[in-house]
Automatic annotation (TrEMBL):
InterPro entries: HTTM-like (IPR011020), Sporulation_signal_mat (IPR052964). This is HTTM-like domain-containing protein. It is found in: Endomembrane system. The keyword Transmembrane helix applies. The chain crosses the membrane at residues 20-44, 71-88, 119-138, 150-171, 209-226, 238-271. One of its GO terms (cellular component) is endomembrane system. It is a multi-pass membrane protein. It comes from Chryseobacterium fistulae. Its main location: membrane. Keywords: Membrane, Transmembrane, Transmembrane helix. Residues 11-275 form the HTTM-like domain. The keyword Nucleus does not apply.
Length: 312
């Protein structure tokens, strides 16, 4: 137990991916706001057919009508704090505000939520306690050894990974009790639905019995064994690549883009800094040594020299 606590305190093992994840999630939230902005009145005001609940905070009788009447102002404020979080301004305080505002926005209209939105809400909560400001920030946080921040960051990442595993395992248990999954024909019925007809190949693949049976049982077995195999070093990469392929396939064939993107992105938390930093540094060196970067840098230096000459 003492060794475990010591390892948690020594360093933030996922400082790079936490920072990277923060940036990508903020960009995703900004995209979602711009997508929903023309429909704010329809979706969130409650004066149309999508009427939401009267209260939006559990255990507290907080009437949502005021927020509905000022939904555009709320969206602008929410966007402002997402941008602050994107650049690392306000750090964990800003992360808390983004989580709370996202949670309120989801409660205003729960009818449009999907599994990706639900997972994202919990991830934003875990990120409140993590130090995700070591990279890609205006004011970077310095990593300290033997600090409570490292413990909270490592526990946050562990919580995200366990949460993901629970989602897959519980989903697999429900599938085993569904007739279409148990008999290996779930893909057939899914690909026949017009709502999930992402490509012209859907109807063709649905008629292929080999594809239907293999894809159905592959999904079921992968979700059932992923929560176990992903914690072991040797099979980890294989099961993660299989899961990424599964989510990418769902995104393409069923048009569930943001949903699958979030699940693919979370897979990266199973790899620590020792995996990500060499790749990041290699990419950064290639960019710095590229012809385009050298050209831009020379132009900037030339411009600065001209400005200095003109000042004299």
């Amino acid at each position: 137990m003492k060794n475990l606590i010591t390892s948690l305190k020594t360093s933030n093992n996922n400082s790079f991916y936490l920072s990277f994840f923060r940036v990508i999630i903020c960009l995703l939230l900004i995209k979602q706001i711009f997508q929903i902005f023309p429909l704010l009145s329809l979706v969130y005001k409650g004066d149309q057919f999508l009427a939401g609940p009267e209260t939006i905070v559990e255990f507290v009788s907080f009437n949502s009508q005021f927020l509905r009447e000022n939904i555009y102002a709320y969206a602008y404020i929410y966007l402002f704090f997402i941008i602050l979080y994107l650049f690392g301004l306000g750090k964990n305080g800003t992360a808390l505000i983004v989580f709370l505002m996202n949670d309120v926005l989801q409660k205003l209209c729960p009818h449009i939520l999907n599994g990706g939105d639900n997972l994202l809400k919990f991830i934003l909560l875990y990120m409140v306690f993590a130090n995700s400001f070591t990279y890609f920030c205006i004011h970077k946080s310095k990593e300290k050894k033997d600090s409570i921040s490292n413990v909270l960051s490592n526990l946050s990442v562990l919580s995200i990974c366990i949460h993901l595993c629970l989602i897959y395992f519980i989903s697999a248990l429900h599938k085993t009790n569904a007739t279409v999954w148990f008999h290996g024909v779930a893909t057939y019925y899914t690909f026949q639905l017009e709502r999930f007809s992402g490509t012209s190949l859907n109807s063709i693949l649905a008629k292929n019995s080999y594809f239907v049976v293999i894809s159905t049982y592959f999904t079921l077995i992968l979700e059932l064994y992923y929560p176990v195999l992903v914690w072991f070093k040797k099979p980890k990469t294989i099961v993660i690549l299989c899961m990424i392929s599964l989510h990418a396939g769902i995104a393409v064939f069923m048009m569930l883009y943001d949903f699958q993107f979030i699940f693919i992105l979370v897979q990266g938390f199973f790899y620590k800094n020792s995996f990500w930093l060499p790749k990041y540094n290699s990419l950064k060196n290639k960019i710095y040594s590229s012809t385009l970067f050298s050209f831009v840098k020379s132009k900037i230096v030339k411009y600065e020299n001209n400005q200095i000459s003109n000042s004299y």
